[in-house]
Amino acid sequence: MTTPTSLNDTFGSLPAVVSSLSSAISSLQPQLASSDLNLTQLSSLLEELAVSLSPILSTLTTAQVWAPEIWAIVLLFLVITVYKVSYTFLMRRSILLRAREFAQRGITGKAEGEGYEGKIVDDGMRRNEELRADHELRKKALGIIGHTWNFIIGSVGLALQLVAWRLLVVPTEVFVQRDARLIFATCKLILISYGAELLFCEPHSYILLHHFFTAGVLVAGMVAAYKTNAPMVLRLGTYWILQATLEQTTYGAMIAYHGSNYITMTDGNPRTATTLLNIAAVLMNVTKWIGYPQKLGPIVFVIYCQLRSVLLS
Predict the structure, then answer these.
(1) How many angstroms separate the CA atoms of 275 and 40, rounded?
(2) N or C: which end of the chain has fewer CB within 10 A?
(3) What is residue 125's DSSP assignment?
(4) Spatial distance between the Cα atoms of 311 and 313, rounded to a whole number of angstroms
(5) What is the CA radius of gyration of the chain?
């Protein structure tokens, strides 16, 4: 990958600038040295800085091009914005009132059947049911949004991996640099998706552990691929992240399940709610059949590649 000339020139000129500054400080008028500032020590430190900068600036230049985090930040901002807009839409006041009314009808009928007084229903049980309805509706709305984003980002990541198909070919290691950049982009998409989910969704311990562990593996993998520049590392990473980009059936089932509950809680169309629940059941059955191959397949391939490299070395 070629770095823009202006960027190279800027970084390359830094040591000379620091060295020039050091010389200028050394030649200052003696009367300026009467202050508490130790000009000799400062000049020496700047000279050391100039020497230290020279070998690392080329690496810094390459890193700026290989890891354009600005786009990841922009995308994260976009994802969070869409999260908030979607949540505001699903939790708008008219929907909340419908959910509360539906919940109140249920608790009123139950209370009357058990012989409670109307005042108790109004002042006590009714308010508790409203709070419960708000909380449950919030969980369903966040579930719909979170799994929809995971479905979209996982599908986009899978598409990027397919474009970088050379890294999926066994046993050849021939690929173009664009393939590596696409895999890096896929890793960043997954990190953004998991980060947004941790920010908005319900704090379950197993989700926290899964996402933190996955984030650690992805970051370590990107650093290893960049530092080693080894095709095998990129290839192993490409197969490993298939565990995150091939979960469309799971996400689809969760979207349908939460959507069914959301419609039921807001007193929506019962037929639509039932249809979504049936779709969720079908997709979860499919997930049961493909889950183990989808998770274990990449791991088996990683082990195979490691054994193959050891045997051929």
Answers:
(1) 80
(2) C
(3) I
(4) 6
(5) 29
* Cis, bond preceding 171 (omega within 30 deg of 0): yes
Kindly state the tokens that stand for 117. Answer: 């007084």
Neighbour count for residue 216 (Cβ, 10 Å): 10
How is residue 239 written in tokens?
Answer: 């197969």
Per-residue burial over 154-187, b if 16 or more Cβ lie within 10 Å, else e, is beebbebbeebebbeeeeeeebeeebbbbbbbbb
Quote the Cα angle for 284-87-281, to 5°. 10
H or E stretch covering 48: helix 39-66
- Which DSSP symbol is given to 170? S
Among 82-86, 139-143, 309-313, the minimum mean pLDDT is found in 309-313
Q: How confident is the model at residue 205 (pLDDT cuts 50, 70, 90)?
A: confident
* pLDDT tier at 202, thresholds 50, 70, 90: confident
Q: What gap in Å lies between CA 265 and CA 95, rounded to an integer?
A: 9
Q: Is 42 helix (H, G, I), strand (E, B) or coil?
A: helix
Mean pLDDT across the stretch 204-216?
Answer: 81
Exposed/middle/buried for 243, CB within 10 Å: 0-12, 13-18, 19+? middle
> Which is nearest to 144 in space by CA: 206, 82, 186, 191?
82
pLDDT higher for 60 or 181? 181
- Condensed to tens digits (0 to 9), the pLDDT of residues 235-255 reads 888 888 888 898 899 999 999
Query: To the nearest whole number, what is the mean pLDDT of the chain?
Result: 75
The pair of three-digit structure tokens given for residue 121, joined into one six-digit string: 């229903």
Would the pTM count as exceeding 0.85? no
Distance CA 284, CA 173 (A): 36
> Closest Cα to residue 139, out of 101, 91, 100?
91
Residue 4 DSSP one-character state:
P
> Average pLDDT, stretch 159-179?
80
